[in-house]
Amino acid sequence: MSNRLSGNEAVAYALKQINPDVMGAFPITPSTEIPEYFAQYVADGEVNTEYVTVESEHSSMSVCIAAQAAGARAVCATSSAGLALMYELLYVAASCRLPIILACVNRALTGPININNDHSDSMGARDSGWIQIYAENNQEAYDNFLMAMPIGETPSVRLPVMTCMDGFITSHAVENIELLETDVVRRFIGEYNPEHYLLKKENPLAVGPYDVSSYYMEHKVLEAEAMKAAKARILEVAAEFEKISGRRYGLFEEYRMEDAELALVLIGSTAGTAKAAVDKLREEGVKAGLVKIRVFRPFPGEELARALAGTKAVAVMDKSEGFSANGGPLFAETRSALYDLKNRPYMINIVYGLGGRDVNTEDIEKVFGRLANIAATGEIGPVYTHMGQRSKEENA
Amino acid sequence: MATNDMVEIRWHGRGGQGAKSACLLLADVAGLAGKFVQGFPEYGPERMGAPITAYNRISEKRCTIHSNIYYPDYVIVVDESLLDSVDVTGGLKEGGAIIINTTLSPQEMRPRLRGWAGKICTIDARRISEEILGKNLPNTPMLAAVVKVSGVLDAERFLVDIEESFKHKFADKPEVIEGNMLTLRKSMAEVLVG
User: Fold this and answer.
1) Are B35 and B62 in contact (CB under 8 A)?
2) Order of all β-strands in the sheet with B74-77
3) Domain extent listing, chain B
4) Measuring CA to CA, which residue among B152, B153, B157, B143 is closest to residue B188?
5) A269 contacts B37? CB cut-off 8 A
6) Which residues of B touch A118 (CB under 8 A)?
7) CA distance linking residue A270 with residue A274, whole number of Å
8) What is the DSSP string of A275-296?
9) Closest to A230 (Cα-Cα) out of A150, A329, A145, A326
């Protein structure tokens, strides 16, 4: 059915259709509307979720961990500093192999304090053992959330899933959306029947005990293997989802990449803006293309290398700084993934859009202009730069 | 980078005046009419009275662009005092129009618009809303004005669709629907085009 919803409304609606057992609820801009709308569904009796209001995000994630360990389906939503306050618990959730689902509405991580979008919050949690799936728009935010449980809960994976969307740009923008019928969603999600859980009387289980050095590493390797196994499961679930929705998803989306010589790699809502720029450049005869990363964890390195193998110059665009002094996190992954290619394209990194800095089609066209120049001359220039910086004189 | 079959609208208001709500409502109603829509606010520090901006894209094909709007077809000024502090006509297309909530006529407003030579529309949104709704709620009159001036939606269809939308929005206070509908009709009739 067709509707018009913001990204936050879409995720809240997905939650209503899923009817999870437990929600750990604590508000933070711009994710606040998710627990807010969901609270209305709870109050109206449209779901029978145990809605647990807590005093911090550390506690909302703790609620999710306890509930999921007890054999329930648990969900929560957060942004920015809220995700940072969950940091320790993110690792606990992943290492306990609890497939909790978290809606991360991406917002700059302080400081200076800022409520607007970039990816510094979830990128900071990229090594916590959570699967991370990013959305371009409200439709993808809804679809990704529906796919999260079947991915995370499968026995070969058993990992928590973070579905990410851009704060305000996606979370607060009303756009057209196609919603699935609730009975179709419930059949797709299915029942959650974990093999082991805390309160199973036939086989009671301890969750989260101390792990000694002689076993710890084996457990971490199992976790790493689960993350590798998630890649195949994500594609399986996408194929099942296509059957009920008609919408196709992969680990990333290739846009006009068939014969592309100049390509962007980026994540999130800017992909839509970049598609418009690619279309314009294609009309002008420029062989431009775009790869939009949907799944950042597990990182689709081999697949990405194949997708970019025929290009001459690639700009990887990071919406978080990273402070590595060597480029942003998406750049590090992408450049590493391409190392084994026989003919590697030239690669640059552009950090953009921090703290809600707007990016329009003209900004993207300028990036392609730089790539065209690099492809023509072989001169890369500075590898790692920041988009649209004021000059020193303007800053003064 | 608007295509010919896309209308782009920029709203200027102050926090608390309902510019964002009107923007999202326009997106919803245009969607009901079968259009592809975007309605989104631009947030800074959130506080009552601070200048806020909101945007609409209404098109025949889905628009994937997710940037702010720099070259709008229409600009709506919900609070006249913003004319002194915000460059409201910045980027406004030559063939477009600015719609201002004011007691003054379009001719009287022109000197305040920094050389804007295009179409100016005015409406006394405060008076209309106070007369009918008993409160200064300027966003509903401004919404009616932009639909009338832009022609982006068929006016009669718009009134039918928005009544449906109000029935959902005001499910727990249906008594306000009639007043809002009356406000919309009166505003469409009263907007001055200069």
Assistant:
1) no
2) A2-5, A174-178, B36-42, B51-59, B6-14, B74-77, B97-101, B119-123, B192-193
3) 6-193
4) B143
5) no
6) none
7) 6
8) HHHHHHHHHTT--EEEEEE-EE
9) A150
Domain residue extents for chain A: 2-245, 252-395
Distances (CA, A) of A103 to A82, A92, A145, A163, B103: 12, 18, 8, 5, 46
pLDDT tens per residue across all 396 residues of chain A: 999 999 999 999 999 999 999 999 999 999 999 999 999 999 999 999 999 999 999 999 999 999 999 999 999 999 999 999 999 999 999 999 999 999 999 999 988 999 999 999 999 999 999 999 999 999 999 999 999 999 999 999 999 999 999 999 999 999 999 999 999 999 999 999 999 999 888 988 889 999 999 999 999 999 999 999 999 999 999 999 999 999 999 999 999 999 999 999 999 999 999 999 999 999 999 999 999 999 999 999 999 999 999 999 999 999 999 999 999 999 999 999 999 999 999 999 999 999 999 999 999 999 999 999 999 999 999 999 999 888 777 765
- Spatial distance between the Cα atoms of A297 and B186, rounded to a whole number of angstroms: 55
Who's near B175: CB < 8 A, 6+ residues apart?
none
Contact A176, A2 (CB under 8 A): yes
Reading the block at residue A115, the tokens are: 């409520």
Please tell me the distance from the alpha carbon of residue A248 to that of residue A89, in angstroms, as a whole number: 33
Residue B86, helix vs strand vs coil: coil
Pick the CATH number of A2-245 from 3.20.20.140, 3.90.1200.10, 3.40.50.970, 2.60.40.1180: 3.40.50.970
A 325-384 residues with CB below 8 A of B? 356, 358-362
Cβ atoms A117, A147 nearer than 8 A: no
**Could you tell me which CATH number the domain at A252-395 has?**
3.40.50.920
ipTM exceeds 0.90, yes or no: yes
B64 interfacial to chain A (CB closer than 8 Å):
yes
Is-contact A291 A268, C-beta < 8 A? Answer: no
Q: How far is B194 from chain A (nearest CA, A)?
A: 32
Instruction: At B154, list the tokens.
Output: 């068929």
The residue count of chain B comes to: 194
Residues in a beta bridge with A318: A351
Is the Cβ pair A173, B62 closer than 8 Å?
A: no
**Chain segment B138-157, per-residue pLDDT in tens:** 999 999 999 999 999 999 99
In which element (H, E) is residue A15 found?
A: helix A7-18
A23, amino acid identity: M
Architecture of domain B6-193: 3-Layer(aba) Sandwich (3.40)
A residues 52-91 closer than 8 Å to B (CB): none
